[in-house]
Amino acid sequence: TDITKIRNFSIIAHIDHGKSTLADRLIQRTGGLTAREMSEQVLDNMDIEKERGITIKAQTVRLEWKGHVLNLMDTPGHVDFAYEVSRSLAACEGALLVVDAAQGVEAQTLANVYQSIEHDHEIIPVINKIDLPSAEPEKVRAEIEDVIGLDASNAVLASAKAGIGIDEILDAIVERIPSPKGDPDAPLKAMLVDSWYDPYLGVVILVRVIDGSIRKGQQVKFMQTGTTHLVDRVGAFRPKIEQLPDLGPGEIGFITAQIKEVAQARVGDTLTDAKKPAAEALPGFKEVQPVVFCGLFPVDAADFEKLRESISKLRLNDASFSFEMETSAALGFGFRCGFLGLLHLEIIQERLMREYDLDLITTAPSVVYKMRLTKAAGEAVGQEIELHNPADMPDPNRIEEIEEPWIQAVIYVPDEYLGPILKLCQDRRGIQKNLTYVGGRAQVTYELPLNEVVFDFYDRLKSISRGYASFDYEQIGHRAGDLVKMSILVNNEPVDALSMIVHRSTAESRGRGMCERLKDLIPRHLFKIPIQAAIGGKVIARETIAALRKDVTAKCYGGDASRKRKLLEKQKEGKKRMREYGSVQIPQEAFIAALRMG
Ligand code: GTP
Prior knowledge:
Subcellular location: Cell membrane
Pfam families: EFG_C, GTP_EFTU, GTP_EFTU_D2, LepA_C
Distance between the termini: 57 Å
GO molecular function: GTP binding; GTPase activity; guanosine tetraphosphate binding; ribosome binding; translation elongation factor activity
Main location: membrane
Protein name: Elongation factor 4
Bound molecules: guanosine-5'-triphosphate
Strand content: 25-35%
Radius of gyration: 27 Å
Number of helices: 15
């Protein structure tokens, strides 16, 4: 393809402002089948099932418009995947900024726009949903200028639903977004934008070619991992898969190269010609490292092998989570897993439970601590270790210093919610770095310990701001802190899945909160159950679950026989989801619920 005829762009939008509807329209108008039409076809034609795996993940679509090739690149929308987003944006020269004509600019949009501006994108504002009676396009146009600072005088007024303004959007992409630049004669340099596992094609790799070209039969070298692979397919999604002889500079498309695992195809890696390699790799490669760890254990010990198989399968498609076997006194055999963030953890956990039908116990998420131990006999310096699991915490007397990871967070929030957000950050040991106003919104920068963020910070932020606050963060290294391991004892037995590392200053309130929540989460038994939080041997909080009187059960389960049977069945079902500690049954939900801070 002639490089001057290529346009690469992404779509920025707040949830519900119409991104998917607009993408479908653009595909339809330029002659391709939309995702919905394709899945309808899939139902008619079982044979196309193999394409389904691709279309689910292939969010990059090649469109043709008036002699130009337009590549629409989709981007994931969550902070956990910030690095993937940054690579997708780096593969584009422009973006459509879709704003709902009735809702106006929302906080989340801001964070995304700024990222796009950082990548020097040409941004085309699209004011969508102008068909709504409540649409106020002129007000929204002014808002885009005041709040974001973009010239919106030539914003396109559109309705993705009614099909208004679609041609103008396509024309604007051709006219305003610059074509990519690249040298067709230089050695191949292509950025690996995304990769995923397809059961029929193996690992599929999405690339953006910078210089040179990539073709079938070529030996390509991955400059970061150092491996070499033979390219066996080159193509693009329209959105149906279409094989092409090659991809030249500026083009976006996919290749397959008989790669077995996505772990070998890292986002941000540079592909080059194995025989005529480029001198240096593209800038910006980052090895993504899991930052949040937790244990996953089967509720039923007999499911351990099934869990191992399921985790291995998921890992085929997601190189960013890690796992290794773990044993726990109370929970038996399971896995210690690492994730990019809490949402990532929840996605994996959810998939294991839903797709693989596993009942799981998730232990308290933990960040990675670094610690230096005191010198042992014969050692010149104290040993340095990394701690992923509170259960492995060494004897406090042997610890010289503990460091915890910190992040720098940028929060965008409408003025009226600022007060409670500042309080939240302050309560989480945050250090305020900056506070500025753009339009009616505040932009606050805080340094925060990651350990205060992983549990429920994002949920709290959203609920305090009714969904309007957005949050973006980056890691800024480890810092020393006064950290201690807090154990939870139920009926005088430590429950290792609930032990956590906390800052000494917040230990007592955390401990009290945990005990209070556990008191509500654990059902009453026939005996009294003490619940305690302790640091070392010292109890810092305590609650007691009162005993259930025997005759109460008898009364409530008495009477109608079928009702009684149903209750018993339900109980049996419930039992499967309980875990016994000493003689206390703890429901599965209690493990995660207890960690949510009030
Ligand atoms: P997520 O997929 O949740 O991120 O949302 P999205 O931004 O992709 O929005 P989506 O395209 O799913 O549209 C959200 C809702 O707005 C849907 O109910 C659409 O039918 C509706 N919608 C999209 N565009 C228009 C429009 O131009 N006019 C009207 N009236 N409704 C629209």
